[in-house]
């Protein structure tokens, strides 16, 4: 089972027409469900009794309409009905039976009561019945439903698709379109089953029209789905341009299958063809509206169709391999519609798909800021989770971090609060407004000891503008022992200079082996290198250097260098095993749920087990990301002492 439950967009105004339609469907159902249910139950009871009497005595006369319906209910193929009736009479002839006027009158009375109950039902009187079609029923049938599942399924799709289409077109045009789509889809259903005497009820034809319009207007949007197959369940996202046409195909196939399985019964109780034609009508209507530039007062109405076409074209270009061209086209579309989230959202999606995440990070940060300004808490958290999942070590400027953390706090998501605060980047604490820093600090105190070693905690502790109680609450734990004094040192290791900072002497050359760590035990780190898998004994690690690299136009990352030669004796060669945060997940090595906390734990473990010197200082290693450099060369020169 796959069920949609949301999408990446949000409306900026109350969709009045959708709310009214939603309310009418609910109120009408509450008023009519009882009477319709009682009428249906009575009709089913009488119909079952008619069937029993007829099977007991098939010599009784049964009017053609009732007999046709009875044979359909028994599943008798149209070509086999004469044979079936003859067989029924032969079986009845073997039993004692008596046919008299009294039995016939009783059967006739049952038939009359059955049709009275059936045709007196509100579903029959106000639904669309092909052989007694009325203009009023094309409207009233849209607000009747045949049960809670029928109603809730329709309201779910109405909730997902209608508000955005209404915001695009305006409430008046949307309401007219909704009624029109429902009426036209019913007419096509009547044309397919012109002699059927089964009422069509429900909003699904009109809602299918809204889904068709959604495809044309918001085809690039990602729809969120929940899936459940036995013991397997989860969620995923997929674009509307893929999932909605797939839904239409399944409706066509289902309609054809039901016509074969339930001949003459209008599709077996589900109006698949009303869904199909409603969807087609909605898509065609939306295409005409976009072409004519017609729309309501919604802010996105003007030029909406043109923007969608530009986005679709840019995505096609990018996915065809011309990524730079596609991203440039989406940037231009975003600049042309600065208040519209669609082009930036598409740019972020394309950046993820093509491995250009660094170019999408500023865009997603901008989308989070927009959602925060609109006070759209759901969008803020949803977009933040997208960003954090795609870029585990992304950093946040203080004001935006405060906004996201406050949203997470309002939603009682303490884990998200901590994850946001761990990523706060504070270059110069004095440049951060004191109220912002204080608010971040107050939020941090609620996370316990988890944030003690972060850059945020260090900034709060050292800022005398802030209240003393807050600074004390984030006081650091006991200082760790100075580098070079830990356990695990061996006799062959060169001595590590004492003190918190290592004095570097330039090395003539640097030999770097890029690796991906796969396992950590008490004595060694298992690493995949270019030449294959190898073990780096922790006893051979003389220094651990950590820094954040923030090159222009590229995704920021952490670099961890395990030094196999002492950088303080001026030797001719410095051998380094280099680990990059973009290449591995530290949680696979040391466990835990938070990536940054796992990274800190990994570094602390390596330091403790190796006794290595932390470079450029202990705080930089125990609080990864504290020191940043504009390039890998600048880092190597300043931290490793490698010149040139």
Tell me about this structure.
Helix content is 54%, strand content 11%. It is an alpha/beta fold. Strands 4, 5, 6, 7, 8, 9, 10 and 11 form an 8-stranded mixed β-sheet that branches. A 3-stranded antiparallel β-sheet has the order 1-2-3. A hairpin with a 2-residue loop joins strand 5 (524-529) and strand 6 (532-537). Helix 8 (171-192) packs across helix 9 (204-218). 40% of the residues are buried.
Blueprint (SSEs and pairs):
Blueprint: E1 2-7, H1 16-56, H2 64-73, H3 81-93, H4 101-119, H5 122-126, H6 137-140, H7 148-169, H8 171-192, H9 204-218, E2 222-229, E3 232-239, H10 240-261, H11 272-292, H12 304-319, H13 323-336, H14 342-353, H15 357-373, H16 377-390, H17 398-410, H18 414-422, H19 434-445, H20 455-461, H21 468-473, E4 509-520, E5 524-529, E6 532-537, E7 543-549, E8 557-563, E9 573-580, H22 587-590, H23 595-610, E10 613-615, H24 618-622, E11 628-629, H25 632-640
Parallel strand pairs: 4-9, 7-10, 7-11
Antiparallel strand pairs: 1-2, 2-3, 4-5, 5-6, 7-8, 8-9
Keywords:
11 strands; alpha/beta; elongated; 3-stranded antiparallel sheet; single chain
Secondary structure: helix percent: 40-55%
Number of helices: 25
Q: Segments where pLDDT lies below 50 for 5+ residues?
A: 296-304, 476-505
Largest sheet: 8 strands, mixed
Sheet/helix structural class: alpha/beta
Concise structural overview:
The protein is an alpha/beta fold. The chain has helices at residues 16-56, 64-73, 81-93, 101-119, 122-126, 137-140, 148-169, 171-192, 204-218, 240-261, 272-292, 304-319, 323-336, 342-353, 357-373, 377-390, 398-410, 414-422, 434-445, 455-461, 468-473, 587-590, 595-610, 618-622, 632-640, and strands at residues 2-7, 222-229, 232-239, 509-520, 524-529, 532-537, 543-549, 557-563, 573-580, 613-615, 628-629. Residues 296-304 and 476-505 have low confidence and may be disordered.
